[in-house]
C-alpha cells in the first residue's frame, strides 16, 4: 500500500473529544481490556494526535494519524478499520496477534511482497481468522513488529506449512516503506518490547502503597533522632554540612526581594564570567543564570520571583540595559548583552565563586564536537567493460573498491602485461583491453590513465560517524551516487525581499525542524519549512535575509 510515495496533505490537529472517541473505537475493535491506565492508553494512542488524508499511486486513499512529531501511529483506508503502524506496535505489541516468519523473509516483505504461507513459522495464535488484522515479526526478535497486514487464511487452525501454497497475509505497511519514512524523527526499534498492560486499579494500589511507605518514612526519623540524641555530643559534623543545612532552612524564609536579588546577581555573574555569545535562545541563556546561582537549592526558582516567568525577567533586565531580547510572548531570543565597557553596574560587579556540578552523563566539549563529525567513504563498482581486466587479474568483479585499490588494480595490470614504454617510462602502451576503456592515443602518460579508468566504475558513497555504533549510522551500506552537498542559496524575491534557502541536508541525517530552529536563532530571523521548488521530494528551510556567509 505504501511501497511508493503517497500524496499527503497538510496535517491538522485532532480534537481531544475526537481522540477519546478514536481511542474507544480502537479498544472495542481490537478487544482490548477496559480500565487501562493512562500510560498504557498513551502507548496505544499518544495524547496529541494530528491527521491528514493520503492517496497512494495504487489507488488507495484514506487517513493517516500521527503524533506531535509527525510519527505515523495509525492509518485507515475508506473501506478499512483503524490499523496500527509498526511504531505503535513497538510500544504496544499487545494490540495485534503476531504471525512469525523467518528473518530472510522480512527483507522480501520490506520490498513490497505479501507473506506467503510457506514462509511463515507456526504455531499461530488461535484468534487469527480470515480477515483479521495481524502483525508480522521474525523468529529472531519475536516481539519486534516488522510489518502489518490482513490475514488471508484462518491461520489459527493451521499447524503445518511445509508443502503448502497461498498468501497468508496481505501486507499493508512494513518497516522502511513510505509510510514509515513520513516520521521526522529517527526512531529505533526496541530490543525487547514489553507486553505489560497497566490498569487504573493497579496504579491506584501502587499510589496507596507509596503513600503508606511515605508515612512510615516520615515517622521513622523521629524515633531515630530520639535514639541517637544522647550521643550527639561525641559526634562532630563537618562545618560545611551544618552550613548547608542552615541555608536550606533559611531558604524557606527568603522574601521575594531576596530571590529577585539572587537572580539578578546571577545574571551579572553570567555576563561578566561566562562566555555568552548571542544570539541565544532564552532556554540556554537561563541555564547559564541558573548555573550561576549562589545556591543550588530547588527552592530558589524563577516562579518564586516577582517576575514569575523567564520572559518577564529578561524583559525587566532589558529595561535596565543589561541585554536585548527579540520575539513575542515567551518565545524570545537574547540578541545582545551589555559588557563592562558599556555598563557601569557590570563594571563595578564583584564576581563570586560558584561550585558548578557536572551534569550526570556529561561529555567533554571536544567529545561532543567529535560526535558531529561525518566521514564520507567513496567506493567504486566495476562495470561490464572492465570484466576482461578483472578476470585476467582474478579480482572479484562484483566487489566495491576504494580509489587507491582501483589504482593498484590498474598498476598490476600494467605490470603483468609489461605495458611500460621502454623509451619513456612515464608513458604506457595501451593494449586492446585498455584501449577499449581509455580513449585517445595508444601511448599515454601514466598520470592520465586513472581518471578515464575510474569513469568506467559506478560510484558509491557511505557516510560514517566514527563515534556511533553501526546500527545508529546514517548508512549501513554504501549508497549509489556521488557524495551529496548541502545547497545554500540566497535569492531576491518579488518586492526586493531577500531570503536564504537551505536544502539537500536530509541526506546527512539532519532534521528539518531542528535545523529551522537553529537557523532562526543564528540568523535572528523567522524560518519556514517547505518543499523545494526544483525537486518537491526535498525539504528546504528558508530564512529571511542574506545569510549565506553566516551558514558556512
In helices, the fraction of residues equals 25-40%
Bin the strand percentage.
15-25%
Chain oligomer state: single chain
Per DSSP E runs of 2 or more residues, the count of β-strands stands at 23
CATH architecture of the largest domain: Roll
Uncertain stretches: 202-252, 357-370
User: What do we call the CATH topology of the largest domain?
Assistant: Sulfate adenylyltransferase
Radius of gyration: 33 Å
Categorize the overall geometry: flat
What is the CATH class name of the largest domain?
A: Alpha Beta
Tell me, rounded to a whole number, the average pLDDT: 82
Q: Which class of secondary structure composition applies to the elements?
A: alpha+beta
Biggest β-sheet description: 6 strands, antiparallel
GO biological process, one term: formation of translation preinitiation complex
Domain DM2: 378-456
GO molecular function: RNA binding; translation initiation factor activity
Domain SUI1: 486-551
